[in-house]
Every structure is written in structure tokens, then in C-alpha cells.
From TrEMBL:
SMART domains the UniProt entry points to: BTK, C2, PH, RasGAP
Biological process annotations from GO: intracellular signal transduction
All copies of domain C2, residue ranges: 1-105, 116-232
Keywords of this entry: Calcium, GTPase activation, Metal-binding, Repeat, Zinc, Zinc-finger
Domain PH: 566-672
Protein's name in the database: RAS p21 protein activator 4B
GO molecular function, one term: GTPase activator activity
Region: Disordered, residue numbers: 783-802
Superkingdom field: Eukaryota
Record organism: Sarcophilus harrisii (Tasmanian devil)
Segments forming domain Ras-GAP: 302-512
Acyltransferase keyword on record: no
SUPFAM superfamilies, A to Z: C2 domain (Calcium/lipid-binding domain, CaLB) (SSF49562), GTPase activation domain, GAP (SSF48350), PH domain-like (SSF50729)
Regions of compositional bias (Basic and acidic residues) in chain numbering: 790-802
Amino acid sequence: MAKRSSLSLRIIEGKNLPAKDITGSSDPYCIVKIDNEPIIRTATVWKTLSPFWGEEYKVHLPPTFHSVSFYVMDEDALSRDDVIGKVCLTRDVLAEHPKGYSGWLHLKEIDPDEEVQGEIHLQMEIVKGQGPQKLRCTVFEARDLARKDRNGASDPFVRVRYNGKTQESSVVKKSCYPRWNETFEFELDESAPGTLCVEAWDWDLVSKNDFLGKVMFNIHGLQAAQREEGWFWLRPDQSKKRVDEGSLGSLQLQVWLRDETVLPSSHYQPLVQLLCQEVKLSPQEHPGQLISLIEETTTAECRQEVATNMVKLFLGQGLIKEFLDLLFQLELRRTVEANTLFRSNSLASKSMESFLKISGMQYLHSVLGPTINRVFEEKKYVELDPSKVEIKDVGCSGLHRIQTESEVIEQSAQTLQSYLGGLLSAIGRSVKMCPAVIRATFRQLFKRVQEHFPENKHQNLKFIAVTSFLCLRFFSPAIMAPKLFHLREKHADARTSRTLLLLAKAIQNMGNMDTVASRAKEAWMEPLQPMVQQGVTQLKEFITKLIDIEEKEELDLQRALNLQALPVKEGPLFIHKAKGKGPLLPSFKKLHFSLTSEALSFAKTPSSKKMSFITLANIQAAEKVEEKSFGSSHVMQIIYAGDTGQSETAYLQCKCMNELNQWLSALRKVCLNNQGMLGSYHPGIFRGEKWSCCHQKERTSLGCDKTRNRVTLQEWNDPLDPDLEAQLVYRHLLGVQDTMREKYLELRALEAAGNIPNIQNEAAEDGLTQLFQVLQDLERAHRSGPLTTADREKNHLLELQT
């Protein structure tokens, strides 16, 4: 049994931000920190005080997660980026909103006394002797303290206060991982024990000392226990009252914390088997009643999440094609008007969206990538709508003339036709690149629609059914917002965004098979009409080839795919290996890295022979490196067992925060079940006969910080986690079981009245009874074996919340 926490984040938009540039505007972006560690950086939105980001992330966390902070920054090309303000949400606040927190939050000013981080290791005890009792506080060490000095570290010392008396520790120079091992004693006031305060400070020779955080203890609680020891979060000083509430603008967020207790696999087998039985049988044998009831009782609010969980569950069972085929049949069964087929946000539509993203993202990148990159690089002005055309001067110096509206539109049409030609050509060549499971699924969809609407007037409908997913719900959204599909690192500027929108509209018209209705919506798209008609013909040819896949070919392709060690992540990184005892110089060499399910390898170029590799089973940790170590905040370290069995470290430099966290996430996920994963590590480097982080002099000494191998970002190519997916499906079904029972009785009543066809009562009722029994058994298993809170700090009960 394991407890898994995850945080779903949607950073929507900001408003009323203050101007930070001389132009009277700002270039805002957000940095998301989990327990003060930067995890995510959004794209910059240029020249605006009301930015829209619309970016979504999911972060997997350890149960000890404490808080998430959103910093709104202003990007500056020539100087340090300005901090506009921040929003902080603690675990306790998020726990008060089990369905997620959603809304606008005022940005708060950054107060140095509130910008604290890290933990401190303390032992508290009451000592009895001949005279009065003593209160003894031993300060061992601290980790991950805030960096207050220009050298990327601090000079920390501890100040202990009790009953009006103060004692101080020695100062540890240039370290955010200090070790004191000092003890302080006070005479205990037995009549009024009061509180003890331990404060951490950064010592400064010239200026005022900087506050690093504090912990306060209720001594009355200690009197019962006599002795307690543990790690404690450093808390900020008491917040100052502010009169400028809202003056820094606001941030609209959606944040959802979820804690899941995942049982051993055997507990989920009855549920998984029951759902698999549903999709294995043909509709003649079984009407898919359980899946139908799940769809009927899933609200629009959570339909996408349920669809994604079901898709992952059936992908793991090798039954995704059968599951989607059942959904196709259920939707066709209730579709009367052909033009409404798969146009609603049904479970079938949402499941296909999730399926394409999970199984086809690499395919999407290969098809759309070159054209998207070309649009971003060329930055051409494109406009077809006469009401939005900007007339500009053209020509060389001395020969300026004003371009006419018709000339702008004609030139724009030519540019768009060139882009569309590239897209259509890439799509046409991509049949063999498309994953076999996607091709087989589209074959089933094509077949089902053809069987249900055999009339000649619906001859285009089977093609539209495929393009409604491939073009309208996959290609077009990715063209309009390439960053959200990982095609680009940054959002498009206004000009590029308009070009992408027009391209997406053209692809949508092609996907609709150039119907009269789609053409009438925006008559100003007429200049692209010849290209759209040509695209319709090419799409039909492409779909015909795409679905031309036999069962044997599908199995052969899938088997070949499974035999290959496909890259989990790949790309250029800079490497430096630590060797010897001398100083490390910041000399990184650029190489191409490839991470598969077996090894991390690198070579000079993507196509050249692999120079070396690290077997995944030998990796013991993947963590960040302190900025001061190499003068860069984007360096990670991979600790692994070398050929001799001794631990070795490879240092890799990434180009930005997001790339760093994506590589760390990918490495941590594929090494999740490794034996011998480290619980601690050194965030610094061994230089000058000592570790730069904690100043320990033994190279093999225990790490001074805890590893963060459970902090990962969810990505489209994540390894499947069957137990977690089964748990998420169970939790949803548990919440709607009463509604499912009511819905089933309602269907029975309609059937008895002759208003709907027979739904095979006996089989359906038997399946429903089994489902309720399975849910009851799982609920009982959760109750009988609750997860202990051993991984949380036991002695936080002594701490006063500040």
C-alpha cells in the first residue's frame, strides 16, 4: 500500500498587473515553486498587463508536500527579471477544497521575512536534576536554506529564545546546508512553560542580518513526551498587514491537490477483470451496459479525467481498441442526425482525445513540427479578413508605396497555401509513421460508421468521423496552441498566432470535408478554397491508406514496436564528468542524449554511434545541483554505480528550467523501481577537499539533503501505472455508484413502458451487482489498511502554527 499525491495546476491569466517597463507595460511570466523549489516556468506573454497563459500541468509529489507558490515575473533582456508579486497556497488551504481551488487571487508583495525555505534538525528534551528542571535544545543541522548572499549561499547561525533569554550558535560560512551540533540550555519555568523559538539567520558583516525562518514549540506538549527529535519546516515571520491589497494585480488559478492510497495490485484485479469483460464481448453477447452507465453518470466537469483514466487502464490491458470500439457503437446507437455524430463532448469524444495524445504525440510532432517551426521562424504578416487587414508601406528606400487591401490578402493567401501544402504533404507521407494501434482504431471507427449510415447521401460521413478526431481534435488544436502540445517552448506572438489560427481554420474546413455550412461561416476564407478542396481529396486518400491495415500487420507492427527501446526523452545536453580531486572547471561538452527504458546513452549527433551509456538499473539518484557550483541554475547530477560498483556522478547542463525539470522527471520515472535508490545526496560538488554544500571533508559522506525522486511532472509519454489508474477509476465509480443504481432503475422503467429497446436485464443486472460488490470490497480494503503517516514528521504536533 502506498500513498501518492498529485497537484493539478492550471495557470489561466493575470489582470491589472503593474507596469515594470518604461513603455508602460510588462512582459509577464510565472514561476511555480513546490516547497520553494522551482518546477515550472510558463511562457512569457509580451507587452501586456493582462496576460493569458492557459497552461496546465500535473505534478506528482511526496505526501510531505507543504506548499505551492506562483511568482509573477517581468522578463528583462538587459537586467535581472523583476518580481511583480506572488500567490502561495499551503497544503492545508488546498485540503479545504477537495474539488479543487478555482478563482482569482490577489498578488502579494514579496516580503524578505516571508521568503523562507528549508528545514532544521532539532532535538528538544526536559532534563531533570538536583535543582530546577532544564529545557535543552540541540541544533544539529539545516538543509535547503534560502540563499541570501550574492555568492549563491548564506552564512547561517541560529538564535534560540526562551522565557526572555537568548542564545546564539556559531556562524557557518557560505552554506545553505550548515551543521552546528550545538546544545543550548534554559531553566524551565514549570508554572508557565510557554514557548521556545528557534530562529535561523544569515550573518552579514556590513548590512543587517537576513531572516531565514523560525520554528516555535509548545513546551507544555514536550513535558508529556520529555524528549522529541526531528526535522521541522522553517516558517516565515508574522506577516505584515498590507493596505495595498490588489494593487499588484491578480492571478486566476485552478489548483487541485489529490492524495491517493494505492493498494497492492491484487486488490484491483476483480475491478479490472470486470471492466475488461465488458469490452471483450461483442454487443450481441453483451450490450456494454456498465460502460454505458459509467458514461451516463459522468458529469461534464470530470468527463475528461475519467476518459483519460479509462484509456490508460485499457491501454495497459491491451484492450484500448476494443474499449473505444464499444464507445463508438454506444454513440452511434443514440445518434439520429448524422451531422451531430461525435460533435458532443461525450465519453467517446473525450476518450479519443486522450488516446490520441497518449499514443500519437510523437506522430503529431513528426507531422506538424516542420511547418510549425517554419511559421515561427518566418514571422510573416498574414491576414484574409478585410476588416482586420493592416495596410503598410512596402518597397525599398525612396520608392515606398502603400500596399492595397487586395494585395495584402493575395500575398497572405499565397503564404498560407505554401504552409498548407507543406502540412498536407507531411500528412500524406505519414501513414507508416502512424502507430499501428491508432490506425487499427480508426479502421474500426470507419467500419462502424459505414455500417450505421450505409446510404449514399452519407458517403462522406465515415471520412468525417475520422477527421473529426484527427483534424478537429488533434491537428487543429496543436496548430493553434503549439506550446500546449510541446511543439514549441514559448507561446506565439500576435502575428504568428494569427497565422496559426488561419492555418487551423483551413485544416478544420478540410476535416469537415468542405461542407457548405463550414464555408458559409467565414466567407473571407474564400481565397483558400482551391487549396481546401484539394486538401479534402488528399485527406480521403490518406484515410483510405491509413485504415488499410490487417489484423496480422497490426500485430506485427505492434510486436516490432515493443521490441524496440523507443526513446522516453532525447535531445542535446552539455555534459561534464567529475574526475579526480582537483577543482571542477565549468567546461561542458555538447552531446546528444537519448533516454530509453533500458539506458541513458549519448553520442556526438543524433545519427552517430552511441559513445557511452549508463544502464538505468545502476542509477541511484537524479537531482539538481546548486547554482554556485557551476554558475548555472540549470545543472543536474546523475549518481550511478560504475563498473567497479563505486558511485560516480555525471553532471548535465540544460538550457532552461523547464528542460531541466523535464529531464529529471523522465529519469526519476524510469528509475522508480530501482533497487538502491539514495535517500540523500549532496546538492553541491566535491571541490578543494570538501563538499561545497555542507563542507564535509569525506567524499563518501552521507548527503546533506533529501532526494526528491517522487517529485515529477506528468508528461504525455509517461510509463503506464496500472494500479494508480485502477485506483482512480475505482474512486470515481465509488462516488457515482448511487447515481448508477438510480440510472439503471430508470432505464428498467423506460424499458418496461416500451420506450426503449430491451437491454438484456439479467446480464446487465448481474454486471452491476458484481461492480457494486467489487467497489464494496475495495472500500473495505482501504478502511482496514489505512496508510500510516510515518513519512510525515512525527513531532510537528509540538510545533505551533504561525
